[in-house]
Specification:
homodimer; mainly alpha; Neurolysin, domain 3; three-stranded mixed beta sheet; 20 helices; 3 strands; binds zinc ion; hydrolase (chains A, B); carboxypeptidase (chains A, B)
């Protein structure tokens, strides 16, 4: 009986989530510019209904009762995830959430204004307010979950992620990369001395790039009857599992950024499209957190899409759509291009983790109070010099002002990006062990077996396990960076 | 205090209505084919939330209290419309609504299957069920409103519409048209003997038709920052006032159907875009019913878009976009083409009212029980012969099976179409009285003054008055068919 109430709640929440997801996708792709204010009001009211429905006090009673009922295993698992969601959503007082939301929104708006100007001084007071709230939030979440504060923040994004496990792995990865990046750059330089980069200039009409993207999406497994590709300023994967909305952005003078972006979002989409439909209206039926989601996008973008074998198959497809012939090594020189840079979102897969580890280290200090917001530029600059030999002291817009995460209050999210890359490498290694001919399959454009493995081990599991459990059950190994290191060494080493 | 509760209710309902409107537009234009089931579930759950919120018993208390408070005039008007909506929504028991909904949905599905086959016998039992419910509904609505049953049905669509007023007008219009149609056809035949119709064949690329449509929309006043034009199988005007979604459908061998359809939907859109924003979240702020809405679409489509003066301005625009030169009288021969036909939605403005009056007369007999569903084919055929000299005895798909309205239970809606045409003619007459040079304005593509008149007299009034009150206040005359008759005589007479 109690379970049935939770089940009905799930359907009602599912309807609001469906509306919010489609309204968000619509806003980015279809909405008239003048429609923004009414849309924001409508979405905020719907989010309020969702919040009231997810935090209703009677849910606690239903959960207590359901936890004492004898349930089939998947209902029991569903109750566990209902409980997790309920705890995550009710551990902050409503009044706190509202004050925090106003502070975040002001800070995010200010960030949009001041980042282009690099006005750190103007931005700092607002950021201090957000960090103050984040510390309080972490303490409240720690109380509710019994976890250390930063763990309690990460728990929202990836259940089971713990600093005690991640910090050593990130430390290992950092010390590896600090040495490896210069080596990879030198190797690249030697290679480019022999064979200079073939420039990607020329005209790539948007409509043809779109057809190419759609062909690649369908080939790697995207179900075009349950999703679509359109254009937005910031690419995303949104919508709902039965109607996944991918977007990309085209530049007519090159085709790789849109194509690799489309492959990345396709990776996210495959996860959504292949979640178990019978659980769709329960938290249990959702994708397991941000790190696992990013592992799926990076699997398609990096493990498949930057794999030399992939381009054996892909280059004729490119030629067919764009009318331009490329040799495999010519294109690999582009898609494997490594560069030291200041901006995380522009980083390649070799340097990217250093950007994340920098934030992970700093975030913990911000949350535990050992670092003050006003000391961020120095703390950032010091690590940037250590990690990549670059300075951001004079350009805060390329330093601690570069990401929306902190102004919007998302502390504990950054690790997911690099964990995703690490997990994707573990998954690829597991697949290679099981299917030694996987590269030959991919070279002929056959992604069936790879997708079958991912469906069985990842997609069908939805939120049945915590993130670390799911990593271990799917790959046969606990979370570790060895596979990712070997992946980088093989692809970028001497 | 009570008013504030109604005000908050309005915002909450507005959010759900916003979501439902955008989800519906998205479904028709963007949704992946496989997304339909989950979309239907989500929309039905959101509609359920809307229903529960609009029919909550405490609203009756708020209304009672607010009606006894001293309120500013627009708040008092808002309360009156909140009350009207509450009465319309609560006069049917929930259990009745659910049973009726199932019967309607089954009948509508059956209609989609059986209409193409003309299978009246297979369809009849389902239609009988829907009519049974409609009679019961009319009785319940009559009880709640104190109106006669059929009036109580019309009241949902056009507050204030009464058979006692409409029936004599429709009778006058019918007897006029039964004579006028043959005369108009003869006049047309004589004209075409002299100057044969210039055929509209040739290639009209969809993209160019779209640009033409957008140019015309903008010219007649559509605000492109608060709306858009896209493609769907069934053209509609949807979305929300700040983001009105118009759709059309293109045929590449002719351009007039898409263009006139776009002008029609633009008429609906102008009404929505120009409703008073300060009332937007109250029922008071909505467009006043279906007849008034149709008057706005028909005003743009027929009074403006089929006006000879309009084409003085429009033909160079057509030439610019489609690269084809037309003379005014050549195009008028197309847009004024009159034809006897069986299908309402294909009818021209001369014959269309006869299709509506036929349904209006039959509907009343269906609701008062003097006509049984099984006798519909004969009743339809008899009137069709009287009105237009055509028979549908052997083709029920072109007779009583042609519209979705009855299978879906929408009794009392049909009159709105012709009332819209009648009201549009009254509005045009009022404008001509006030601005004798209106045709010259339109001939130079200047729609400012016409739109200013409509904004002042119609759009800004939203739901401040009943439909007949609004007609009289805006045009200076009670609802009458004289203006529409004169309009037809002038345009189609000898
Ligand atoms: Zn991603
Ligand atoms: Zn219409």
């Amino acid at each position: 009986m109690s379970f049935q109430k939770l089940d009905e709640l799930g359907r009602s929440l599912g309807a609001l989530e469906h509306a919010l997801a489609i309204l968000a996708a619509d806003e980015a792709t279809q909405m008239a510019v003048g429609g923004g204010e009414a849309r924001a009001e409508a979405m905020s009211a719907l989010a309020g209904m969702h919040h009231r429905q997810t935090t209703a006090p009677e849910i606690a009673d239903w959960l207590d009762a359901a936890e004492n009922e004898t349930l089939e295993p998947d209902h029991a698992a569903a109750v566990r995830e209902f409980r997790r969601e309920y705890t995550n959503r009710t551990c902050l007082p409503t009044e706190f959430v509202e004050r925090q939301m106003r502070t975040r929104m002001r800070c995010e708006q200010l960030w949009r204004d001041l980042r282009p100007k690099g006005d750190w001084t103007g931005f700092l007071p607002a950021l201090e307010g957000v960090i103050e709230f984040a510390r309080e939030e972490a303490a409240l979440r720690a109380d509710a979950t019994g976890l250390p504060p930063y763990d309690a923040m990460m728990e929202q994004f990836d259940p089971g992620n713990r600093v005690a496990e991640i910090a050593p792995l990130f430390a290992e990865l950092k010390s590896f990369l600090v040495d490896f990046v210069p080596n990879a750059l030198e190797t690249q330089q030697n290679r480019l001395k022999k064979t200079p980069l073939r420039p990607l200039s020329g005209a790539y009409p948007v409509e043809k790039q779109r057809e190419l993207g759609l062909a690649m999406m369908a080939a790697v497994g995207f179900d075009v009857t349950r999703g679509s590709l359109s254009v937005s300023h910031h690419p995303f994967c949104g919508g709902v599992p039965t109607d996944v909305r991918i977007t990309t952005r085209y530049r007519s003078n090159e085709f790789l950024s849109a194509l690799m972006g489309t492959l990345h979002e396709t990776g996210h989409a495959l996860y959504e499209q292949n979640l178990p439909t019978e659980w769709a209206h329960w938290p249990l039926g959702k994708a397991r957190g941000m790190a696992m989601h990013e592992s799926q996008s990076l699997f398609v973008e990096k493990q498949i899409g930057r794999n030399p074998a992939f381009w054996e198959w892909a280059l004729p497809v490119v030629e067919k759509h764009l009318g331009e012939r490329w040799e495999r090594d010519e294109i690999l020189a582009h898609v494997h291009y490594v560069e030291r840079g200041l901006i995380r979102v522009d980083a390649d897969e070799v340097t990217y983790p250093l950007h994340v580890i920098l934030r992970f280290e700093i975030e913990q200090e911000l949350i535990d109070g050992s670092l003050a917001a006003k000391d961020l530029p120095e703390a950032w600059d010091a690590r940037m010099r250590d990690f990549l030999g670059l300075s951001t002291m004079d350009t805060p817009q390329d330093g601690p002002m570069q990401d929306v995460h902190w102004p919007s209050g998302a502390f504990g999210y950054f690790p997911s990006y690099t964990l995703g890359a690490v997990i994707a490498a573990q998954q690829w290694a597991a697949i290679e062990r099981e299917m030694p001919d996987v590269n030959q399959q991919i070279a002929r454009g056959d992604f069936e077996a790879v997708n079958a493995w991912r469906r069985k081990h990842v997609w069908s599991q939805a939120s049945l396990w915590t993130t670390p459990e799911l990593v271990e059950r799917s790959t046969g190994e606990p979370l570790n960076v060895a596979r990712f290191r070997r992946h980088l060494e093989k692809r970028y080493g001497a």
